[in-house]
Specification:
The structure holds 2 protein chains of 2 kinds.
Chain A (H helix, E strand, L loop, with lengths): L2 H25 L7 H6 L6 H12 L2 H14 L2 H27 L4 H6 L4 H34 L5 H52 L4 H12 L16 H17 L4 H4 L8 H32 L2 H7 L6 H9 L6 H41 L9 H22 L7 H23 L5 H20 L26 H17 L7 H13 L5
Helix pairs in contact in A: 1-8, 1-15, 3-8, 3-12, 4-5, 4-12, 4-13, 5-10, 5-12, 5-20, 7-8, 7-15, 7-16, 7-17, 7-18, 8-12, 8-15, 8-16, 9-12, 10-17, 10-19, 12-14, 14-15, 15-16, 17-18, 17-19, 18-19
Chain B lengths: L51 H10 L1 H34 L1 H5 L1 E3 L2 E2 H44 L4
Antiparallel strand pairs in B: 1-2
Helix pairs in contact in B: 1-4, 2-4
Classes of the chains: A mainly alpha, B mainly alpha.
């Protein structure tokens, strides 16, 4: 790591920040401060813009650096992640995007509350949405801290601390000042940068191997030290039955969780019609799918060009595989090309983190203001405008994320993303699908299905090897481990669905047929949609 | 459903953002929580005094809506079952059936690689098929229904 890399990477990243801050001030110049504007950007984005923004919201640094790194270290097993992340979008496209656009206004809770008694349902859905967002945010913040340490070589505590604080402060500024419009543009810019960077590296890798994918795989297998096993599954998840079940559990959470992520759901409200929401998702699937295909090439490319051992030396989790590959493709350390490519990758990774945390912060502030505050406010308390509350909530969530990010700085928080997906799949997806498709669903069923997914998911992780009972846990000294799997999805997702069914069966009130009719007609036709 | 108004829905451009009739807020319907009458409301030419709930029930029971819903479900249910089971089979095979997945197909490409890329391919194909199906078989009918329903509910004071 030389001073050149750092200076250039910082310069590029500052350019990105300056550009996005300029966008923020530009889009907020003639604000009227309506909720429509703050949460949904006035609902005036085109499908293509929104598709890019969805892709920008979804493709985190973990996808860009993490999946390629896993492939560089463990070969085929890294690919399993990207397949889960992509197939999940079919659930969103078929069952969620259009119907949510037609039925809701700003959040997931809107869709459910349309059929049920508002207060308990809003509190439940708001709580689970905020939980998912905070888990995801903390993972991103800690990731930002370790990324700066990795890329800029300054593993000093101060650099990491200031990175976390800086990222947190920036996201609060974007969200509070610019609302959805600024956040969306940041995500669009980031998606374009990320795609451009990935395409460049992929082309360079393929040129290096003369376009021969077969040769690339063979070289990767050879340099990995595992031979042909590198190209088949099993190096990472092929251990005992616990490890295998664990991965199946994670795969379920990945494929079902995306449709319950609050920051993805809120993106469907930024377009005028359900048809536009569908076309956004088609755009997003095209972008995300091609992105993951390219990360596969980059992962095997890193194994073939850099070598698995060298990647492992640089970072045990493999996060530096792509930056090292960029350095090599540009002409090696010390060369101008290598320096530039490395700096570009580093800057894109930071831009990625910034865009993702901004999206999550906005979605969770919407949940706090629109769902929780509106339901929990005392009858005769002073009424603040919802957008003002949302702005304050964004700052509060930013503060919480910074604090947790600093506290968890030295812990291995890789499990948090999996947990966020598991909670989204266990608590948010059942209630959403039941509300949209089940005639007899009731308020009690809705509340039970949210808590019946949320509580088991969190509880099982607390009792899992992630937290205690093994050398790699958060608290290796104690042992209250009761549940063998690190990913709770396999148990908590069915639990969420069952709890919703049980709550409905044991409901004291009959299902409201007229409300169901209204939800069904609205969801499929868009009548009366806002 | 009959048209309440001389305006032809077909004259409306299909990508019209429909910003005209903003819906009222949710949960402000009259008759909160009262079970709706089970008999279908008199079709067409609704008498003033019909509540929004009656209108939605009436639309839900109309043949046109049943047709749209049927088309949607006939595509989505089998397609969802198909891709979900295909994904589960893939993940289970990747974690349990090593010999099968490691079997070479051509050069360095093995069954696992073909299956993984197959997942990408099926996702793209299903996306295209769904978008096409919705565009050709559902959009127009849904837009007509939307227009009719909004016409019916327009006069109602909420």
């Amino acid at each position: 790591m030389t001073g050149d890399h750092q200076a250039l990477a910082l310069l590029l990243f500052c350019a990105f920040v300056a550009a996005t801050l300029a966008i923020t001030t530009w889009v907020s110049r003639n604000r009227r401060g309506s909720a429509e504007e703050f949460y949904a950007g006035g609902r005036l984005f085109s499908p293509m813009e929104n598709g890019f923004a969805i892709a920008g919201d979804y493709m985190s640094a973990a996808s860009f650096l993490g999946i390629s790194g896993l492939i560089a270290l463990f070969g085929y097993d890294g690919m399993l992640y990207s397949v889960g992340f992509l197939v999940a979008w079919l659930v969103v496209l078929f069952l969620v995007a259009e119907l949510v656009r037609n039925c809701g206004r700003f959040t997931l809770a809107d869709v459910v509350a349309a059929r049920m008694r508002e207060r308990p349902v809003r509190i439940a859905a708001g709580t689970s949405s905020v939980t998912v967002s905070v888990l995801y945010l903390v993972a991103q913040m800690v990731g930002a801290g370790s990324l700066v340490a990795l890329l800029l070589g300054g593993s000093s505590e101060a650099a990491r601390t200031w990175t976390v604080i800086g990222v947190g402060a920036l996201m609060v500024i974007y969200v509070s000042l610019g609302g959805m419009r600024a956040t969306t543009w940041i995500q669009i810019v980031k998606a374009v940068l990320l795609m451009a960077g990935t395409v460049t590296l992929t082309v360079l890798v393929l040129v290096r191997f003369h376009g021969d994918f077969n040769q690339l795989l063979l070289s990767a297998a050879e340099r990995s030290g595992h031979g042909r096993d590198f190209l088949a599954p099993g190096l990472r998840y092929g251990g005992d039955w616990t490890a295998r079940l664990d991965f199946i559990s994670l795969g379920l959470a990945l494929v079902l969780g995306t449709a319950g992520l609050p920051h993805i759901l809120s993106r469907f409200y930024t377009v005028p019609t359900a048809r536009a929401a569908r076309r956004s998702v088609v755009w997003a699937i095209g972008l995300i799918g091609s992105f993951y295909l390219m990360t596969i090439v980059l992962g095997f490319g890193a194994a073939a060009v850099v070598g698995s051992d060298e990647v492992r030396e640089s970072s045990p989790a493999g996060n530096t595989a792509v930056p090292l590959l960029a350095l090599d493709l540009g002409g090696g350390a010390g060369s101008t090309g290598g320096t530039v490519l490395f700096a570009v990758v580093a800057a894109v990774a930071f831009a990625t983190i910034l865009a993702v945390v901004a999206g999550i912060t906005l979605a969770s502030s919407a949940s706090v203001a629109h769902d929780l505050y509106a339901s929990l406010r005392r009858r005769h308390a002073r009424r603040y405008s919802e957008v003002a509350v949302a702005r304050v909530a964004a700052a509060g969530i930013g503060a919480v994320a910074i604090a947790l990010g600093l506290l968890a700085r030295d812990l291995n928080v890789a499990f948090l993303v999996g947990l966020a997906f598991a909670v989204a799949a266990s608590a948010n997806l059942p209630v959403l699908l039941y509300s949209l498709f089940w005639r007899n669903f009731t308020t009690r069923g809705a509340v039970w299905s949210v808590y019946g997914g949320l509580v088991p998911a969190v509880l099982l992780v607390l009792l899992s090897p992630v937290v205690s009972g093994s050398p790699a846990s958060l608290f290796p000294g104690v042992d209250f481990q009761l549940f063998p799997l690190e990913n709770p999805g396999l148990v908590s997702i069915p639990f969420g669905f069952l709890a919703g069914w049980a709550g409905t069966a044991l409901s004291p009130e009959p299902p409201d047929e007229a409300k169901h009719a209204e939800t069904e007609v609205r969801s499929l036709t868009g009548a009366g949609a806002v | 459903m009959e048209k309440q108004d001389g305006r032809e829905a077909a004259a409306v451009r299909i990508d019209d953002p429909w910003y005209d009739a903003l819906a009222s807020g949710w949960g402000e319907l009259d008759g909160t929580g009262a079970p709706a009458p089970l008999a279908p409301a008199a079709p067409a030419g609704h008498a003033p005094g019909n509540s929004a709930a009656d209108i939605y029930l009436e639309v839900q029971r109309s043949a046109a809506f049943q047709e749209v819903r049927g088309r949607y479900r006939r595509f989505v249910v089998p397609a969802s079952l198909a891709f979900f089971s295909w994904y589960v089979v893939y993940v289970v095979a990747a974690t349990t059936a090593h010999e099968l997945m490691a079997r070479p197909v051509a050069g360095a490409v093995n069954v696992a690689m073909v299956a993984g890329l197959g997942q990408f391919l099926t996702t793209f194909l299903l996306t295209w098929a769904y978008a096409r199906h919705a565009r050709l078989r559902r959009d127009r009918a849904a837009l007509d229904l939307r227009w009719d329903t909004q016409e019916l509910t327009r006069g109602i004071t909420r």
